[in-house]
Every structure is written in structure tokens, then in C-alpha cells.
Amino acid sequence: MDAILLQTLNGLDKGSAYALIALGLTLIFGTLGVVNFAHGAVFMIGAFCAVSMNRLLHLSYMTVDPTKKDFLGNPMKIQTPYIEAWFGHDTGAALLNWSVPLALLLALPVMIVVGVVMERGLIKHFYKRPHADQILVTFGLAIVLQEIVKQIFGANPIPTPAPHALAGALDLGAMIGLKAGAVVYPTWRMIYFLFSLIVIGGVFSFLQFTTFGMVVRAGMADRETVGLLGINIDKRFSIMFGLAAAVAGLAGVMYTPINAPNYHMGMDFLVLSFVVVVVGGMGSLPGAVAAGFLLGILESYGSMNAVKSLLPGIDQIIIYVIAIVVLLTRPRGLMGRKGVMED
Amino acid sequence: MLGLSKKDLMFLMIVTALTLAAPILLNPFPESSALAQFNAGYPDLMQRIAIFAIFAVGFNILFGLTGYLSFGHAAFVGVGSYATIWMFKLLSMNILPGILLSVTLGGIFAYLIGFVSLRRSGIYFSILTLAFAQMCFNLAYSVLTPLTNGESGLQPELSDPRILDAARAGGTVATPNLFGLGMNATWKVEALGRVFQFNAGYYVCGVISVLMFYLALRIFRSPFGMMLRAIKSNQHRLNYTGLNSRPYMLTAFVISGMYAGLAGGLLAAMDPLAGPDRMQWTASGEVVLMTILGGTGTLLGPVLGAGFIKYFENIFSKINDTVLHSWFSFLPKWLEDICVAIIHPFVGQGWNLTLGVLFMGVVIFLPGGLIEGGQRIGRLWRRKPGGNGAPSAKNAAAE
Question: Residue B358: left if φ>0, alpha if ψ -120 to 50, beta else—which one?
């Protein structure tokens, strides 16, 4: 029972990353009809926004303190981050400590710009070309982005810690009345899950309750008619592309304390996110979110020892097996609209 | 002759001649000159070019003729490699049983995966094949470790049973051979200041690739090839005429899977080590790139693409900052540094970046690949008043 609860939490946590990336992919597919293989790279760029923020805050100058000696007997050199010099020691240290959440502020504008530039600069020219060409050009773009990040930050994973206050673990078992210590879960992972719920809620309410969102939904349903009504739907769609990039980027920022980011993390997530989109239904936003959490949880269950001893290796392939079954029995996906991309 | 028209026969003869003479043709620069590093005439590189040409030609039968973009063909290469190594371990170091098994297994896997994947088309097909390939990759990494030796890769060892030629085993593992002819046997001929290396392994790969090229040529010109082209241009209409196109698709998929299995088998035969990274989806991406870089749907395109990519991969990873500085040394110092700084990310370790840029460039500007580029240049020639009008024989036959 405890194990199942723990794995459910694990699954929700994995599922949040899948759901956020798949949400962006679906937004892009639903609005622009483009299959974006570079979306994983966007997630990765978000994660490296957190790394850059961390490095920016740690920029420091050096002073020599003649009263102290280091172990070689030379005068001690002391690194002081500018931020501590400007804001005082305590505030500065707190800012450094909270660098990952602060990186959200950096990532939001950066990712929107990345998304809009990508759409206006490259993908715009591929609307009329076949899907195969879109896949190929975004695949190329993903390689390029990935290699550029590798050139700048190196090939090794870069650990980026969460704030100290959130770095520990929560004893969830005690909270819900089980015995203490039965279900202990890292705090940051819980925060990641809550964060993803907030972002998903934000995107849905933006689409549902604002005029802009209404126009975008109308455009998804019938692009031509909206255009005929005198609305510049292309402009709105490219803003949606920026929004989708921002969602993936923020997911990447918040993911850094869970796994140290490296340059190919995006590719690893991308394949799975595609599978999630297909299972949820191409173009269906609730489908992408639901399938993300569902597959995350199933993958976690698959990695339980009891299940693994019954079906060895199931944890590695369960997502693909489900995708294959869904595609063959219900090609439009769990929540896909009838007639959308069914062949 | 050989069931080919006169033009195709000529074309095949040229390809055969080029393949056989490759060790000479790819060695244009004398050993002592500074340009010697651009020579490609050594066995390892030529083998890889020939093998990847087989892979790309096979992939083109599926992608070029039917338009179905598979992102999972690397799985068949991996299966072929493992099959060959297992034959080395169990039967003998003769490459023949290994290669036969790799082709067979490639075909069987392609049949199974194709049977399921071909129920869908378009992006669904791409994602399904991708999912299957990732599944194979994950399995090879984890559960199937007894069969694949996981991350460290599978290779023949001294303790293997090797039923057929165990008696010949000395103190070391024998090299892969074809009835005693070692794959690493090389005859070096020094002439004209150049060292020409005639390698047995290359000629095995080369002869097989010419045979495979001939097979592809026959498929392209056959009614079956015509049917595949019809699927590409309009599958719906084909279905409305009452024709079931799926068996044709499945056959094409299995054929291309067998080509991929053969390529995997040859890779393992030339260098007996098979790792799971051969099955990763970036490897599938590479063969897609070769095909579109050369020219999708043309006969010669994939061969050109494979040669181009493998050659430049090899050259680019050899160039380092010292070489760059020596190239630009004629410029003023500050300009030299700028040039080196610009080119630096693309060479040495940065080959993948070049590959990505090339990929995007080809898809954006030259969707028909090198062949189309050649034709465009040919057309420019023809338009010139008084210019020699005939397009080169190669292009015409490749169409």
C-alpha cells in the first residue's frame, strides 16, 4: 500500500513533466498544424536558463584578506558575489539560494522570444510543406540547439540545487494519518507537481476566459473563417507558439533540481512526450495533460519490484506498448476529436 | 543485359567501376603534400561509406518511393549487428553465416514492426516506428543484457564455443574472414608518391553494395516500383480503384529492413563489436539525412549522401585549431583569430553541429538534395548560349 502510494506520487511527478511538454506540443499542433521535433530542445533551453541564472548570480569579484592565510601560507583570496556586495550579505545569500525559482523570471521572457523567433524565422515557411519536411527541419533545429548548448555549457550535467528550505523531504504519511516515515517524499518534487498544476490551470484559463484565448480557440476550430472575419490569426498563433515554448521552458527550469541538466535531456523527454500526445489525441489539450499523468503513473507502477518480477523489463517499454495499443485500436487517441488526423 | 535498358546498364557499369577503383580515386593527393589529410582512400572509411550506402539505398526504397518516413530503421541495423556477432560466437568467424542471419532477422523484425506500423500513415507512422525502435533500444539496454551485453557491447571472445572453427583458434580471437580471407587483409601499393590500400573487407562491402544497388535499380524500374510510386503520389485514389496497397507497402518495408539488417551485419563483420547505441533514434535520423541530402527518390542520391556525410564526418573531426590557424595564416593576425573562432565550433568535436546545420539547410533550400543541385547547375549550363547542352549521363539515369 505504501509502495503504491509512493509510486503514484512518483508517477504524478514524472507525469507533470510529460504533461507540460505534451501540452506545448499539442498547442503547437492544434494551432499551427506543425509537428515540432525541437520542442524537447526548448525544454532543455529552459533548464539552462536556470543554470545561467545561477551563474549570473554567482558572478563575483576577488579581494585579498591579508589577515588570513590559506593552507599554502599565501594571503587568503575571498570571492564575494556582486549580489552580496550590493544587497548586503543576508539578502544576497538568500537570493543566491533561491536562484532556481528566480530563474523563472528570466526564463519567461527568454522562452517567449525563443518561441516567437523560431516560429517567425523558420517554421512559418513550412506550413505549406508536407509533415515529413516539418519533422525533418525541426529535427535538424533540435540538433543545432542541442549542440550550441553543448558548446557553451559542456557535455557534463550541471547540478543546480533547490533552495535549502525546499531541499528536504516531506513526511506525507504522517500528514494523512499513516504511520510516520511510511511515505516520505522530496519536497521539491511535490512543488514541481503543484507548479505544473498551476501552469496547466493558467494555460487553460487563458484559453477559456480571455478574449485572446477565445479567438485562438476559434482559430483552432476553423482558421479560414476567423481570418475572413478580419482577425490576424497568424499573429495570434505565433504568440501561442511563444506561449508553448514558455510552458516547456518553465517546466525545464523547475526540473533542474530534480535531475542535473545536460544537453541531451530534451531529446530523452521528446520521444516520450510525442507518445503522450499521440495517446492523448493529436490536438486535444485535456487529452495531452491526462495522458501525461496517466503514462507517468503507469511507468512508475511498471518499475515496482513486484511488477518487474512478473514481467521483466516492463518498466522500460510500458509507455510504448500502451501507445501502440492505443494507436491501433483508437487512432484518434483517448480524447481526440473525431476525424482529426485519423489515418 | 541483366534485365536493364542500355542506359541503366551503362549507369550500373559506371557505378561498378567507381566502386572497384575507389581505393585509387579517393587517394588523389600525394602522401607528402599538405592535402594528404583530405584523402579518403583508407579501408576503414571506405568500408563505412559502402555499408552506409547500402543502408541508405534500402531506406530510399521505402522513403523515396512510397513517401513513408520511418524513424526506426536503426533498430534493424542493431538487430543485424547482434545477429552477426552471435554467429561469430556460436558458429565460426566466417562472415557468411552471420550476414545471412542478419538479413533474415532484419527482414523478420521489419515484417513484425511493419505489420503494425503500416496500419497508420503520415506522422503516426513516423511516431510508431520511432516508438518501436526506442523500445528495441531500451530492451537491448536492460532486460536483454544476456543477449546484448548491455552498455558495454557484444563482441566475440576466446571462450566462445565457435563450433565450426574452434580447432583453428590460437591464443587470440581470430579476425572475421571470408573462407580464410581476413577482412583486415590489405595490399599496399606504392606508386606516384601515393600509397594505395586495397583492402579485402572493403571489396567485400563494395561488391555487396554494387549487388544491392543493382537490386534497387531493378526494383525502381519494375512494376512493383511503379506501384510504390503510385502510393506516394496518391494513396487514397489507389485505394478507391479497389486495390489493396498494404501488401505492397509491407513488402517495401521488409525489403528496406533487410537492407538495414545487411548493413548492420556488415558493420559487425568489419569491426566485431555491437553496442545498443547503434539502435538509437539519432542513428535513424542520420540515415534519413543521408537520403535527403543526396536526393530522395533518386537512385544515386542516397549513395552520394552516405559518401558525403561519412567523408566529411571523418575530415571534420580531424581538423583542430592548429590546422585552422595554419590555413588562415596568410591573413592579418586579428582577422585570422576571428576566422578560427567562427569555424572552431563546427570542426573537431563539433561535427554534430555541422550535421544539424547541413540538415536544416538541405531541407530548407534544396529539398531535392545534391542530385537536384546538380541538375540545377546542369540547367544553368544548358541555358548558356553556345554551351554544351547535354545533361550529364549520371543525372539523367538517376532520375
Answer: alpha
3-state helix, strand, coil in chain A (%, to 5): 70, 5, 25
Q: How many domains does chain A have?
A: 1
Grid cell listed for A240? 501561442
Neighboring chain B residues of A278 at a CB cutoff of 8 Å: 124, 127
Contacts of B131 in chain A (CB under 8 A): 271, 275, 320, 323-324
CA distance B185 to chain A (A): 38
The dihedral through the CA atoms of B371, B377, B381, B384 has a sign that is positive
Residues of A in contact with B134 (CB under 8 A): 271, 320
Provide the residue range defining the domain that includes A245.
2-61+100-329
Specify if A244 maps to a domain.
yes
Across the interface, do A139 and B359 touch by the CB < 8 Å criterion? yes
- Backbone phi, psi, residue B188, to 5°: -100, 130
Q: Which pTM does this prediction carry?
A: 0.84
Q: What is the set of domains in chain B, with CATH numbers?
A: 6-318 (1.10.3470)
Nearest to A313 among B121, B128, B139 (CB): B139
Residues 6+ away with beta carbon under 8 Å from A222: none
Mean pLDDT, chain B cut into blocks of 10 residues (399 residues total): 79 84 77 71 85 92 89 90 88 85 93 88 83 85 79 78 65 73 76 78 89 90 90 88 90 94 90 82 85 86 89 81 73 76 75 84 84 86 58 45
Distance CA B215, CA A149 (A): 43
In whole angstroms, give the CA distance from residue B179 to residue A315. 44
Q: How far is Cα B187 from Cα B202, in angstroms, rounded to an integer?
A: 12
Q: Locate the chain B residue with the closest alpha carbon to A125.
A: B364
Please report the DSSP string for B11-38 in residue order: HHHHHHHHHHTHHHHT--S-TTSGGGGG
